[in-house]
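Q: I'm building a small set of examples for a reading group on sequence design. Run inverse folding on the following structure and report the sequence directly after it, with nothing in between.
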């Protein structure tokens, strides 16, 4: 009886959690058909071969191809050596912007693949770009 009760409670909690995430998405984006769309010119940039302690930057260009303003709320990288910056103002439909990324190779060596995740009011909410290359040991 106790196992049946625990199983029932687990099912209720799981159903409730799944139901909440669906409500959250609908509330933040409204209708997915009207949501902004973040379209990148390139989703991967290869900075080539660099030396240890070199700093490289790249601007990932994107456009809002959706039908409502694009609002970027967060940006982070898979490593503390990589820093993204993004526009704080809404990007209107048809307009474009850049995600400026800086990679500091100090303490790094070999092949690198830094994943930059951008969170916005798009569907899905996260967009990912990659900065790749190789850090050569002197």
């Amino acid at each position: 009886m106790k196992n049946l009760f625990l199983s029932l409670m687990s099912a209720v909690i799981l159903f409730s959690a799944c139901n909440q995430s669906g409500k959250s998405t609908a509330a933040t984006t409204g209708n997915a058909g009207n949501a902004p769309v973040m379209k990148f010119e390139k989703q991967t940039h290869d900075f080539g071969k660099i030396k240890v302690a070199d700093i490289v930057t790249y601007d990932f260009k994107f456009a809002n191809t959706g039908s409502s303003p694009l609002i970027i709320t967060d940006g982070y990288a898979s490593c503390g050596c990589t820093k993204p910056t993004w526009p704080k103002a809404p990007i209107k439909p048809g307009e474009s912007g850049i995600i400026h990324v800086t990679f500091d190779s100090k303490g790094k060596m070999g092949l690198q693949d830094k994943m930059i995740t951008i969170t916005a009011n798009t569907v899905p909410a996260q967009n990912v770009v990659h900065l790749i290359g190789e850090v050569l040991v002197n």
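Residues 2-29 form the longest helix (28 residues).
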